[in-house]
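Appendix B: complex inputs.
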Amino acid sequence: MASMPLPQRLLMGPGPSNPYPEVAAASAAPLLGHLDPAFLVELDEAMARLRSIFATNNPLTFPISATGSAGMEAAFVNVLEPGDVVVVGINGLFGQRMAEVASRHGAEVVAVEAAWGEPIDPEALLGAHPNPKVLAIVHAETSTGVRNEVAALGAAKGDALLLVDTVTSLAGCPVEVDAWGVDLAYSGTQKCLGVPPGLAPFTASPRAVEAFVARPSSWYLDLGLVAAYVSGDGSGGRSYHHTAPTGQVVALNAALGAILAEGLEAGFARHEEAGRRLQAGLEAMELELLVDAPHRLAQLTTVRVPDGVDEAAVRTQLRDRYGIEIGAGVGPLAGRVWRIGCMGHTARLANVEALLGALAEVLGR
Ligand SMILES: *Cc1c(COP(=O)(O)O)cnc(C)c1O
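Resulting structure:
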């Protein structure tokens, strides 16, 4: 059993997406040590490319050695002291998770909620507390397919640090860290970056770095310590903190190269075209989308399960008969929706047509 080849899947759930072909090639390259100069060239290139993709000049921009959730934890743990006020927008699972992470690190969380499927009102977030340490929001809420407004928050954040989850937005739609006044942002590799899960691209503004606490409550995610490796000591020297996952960084760098070679704008347009075609095709099948058009992401679409349909059986048939993975609903939407991703290399019309055809057959529509 274990020696059987793994099945090919078209990955159209909420992540992972199918990796870019450049990633497979890079994954077969020889392994390098984490202080090998040949590896450091790759790391430096990946960091420079991440600055382009985050649209930032932040020196501290690098891939954290763990999945997107570690990016979230790092963003909070490096700036929070017990009792600090964190205002969090919650309109889905990942906003809830931010509130949980912040409160475990001792923050006083002020939650600003919207229904799952609706966006957070930026004015409500800005008005929730007179002097918060952090304003936190999920840009692309993968549990619902809603895009939350970020630019308006940066423009009026005052002394607060603006902390943004860009896990599903980065490389799928515009993310402008510097222009929007974002102080801390993190992402994940397995969504629109088209790389297997395992790294969390991260960026911190000089203002955020100024605000770093001396002794964060996590040793592994202490960015003061990690920076001695990723950025060096200022004279080029780099010292060991933990063993960088060198193979994963090389794979990420290959995908970032592919993304920039295509062009960020062209990549956004490709996500937009694929996502909108998917949404039109679902509506043509008389399926109902959860999110209103102005707030709807292209890279993640949530569609209601029609009455009388066994939602899990549909996903099983899509996987077993057609080799296509889509996602289930979570939280209050469990059992009521499917979540369909058009992310990274997967965001192409041919894949959308394959899914629409398979779904029409399974549903008999
Ligand atoms: C997937 C996701 C995460 C968590 O990332 P993991 O890689 O699963 O740890 C966080 N935020 C959002 C918006 C996500 O979609």
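The chain has twelve helices and 14 strands.
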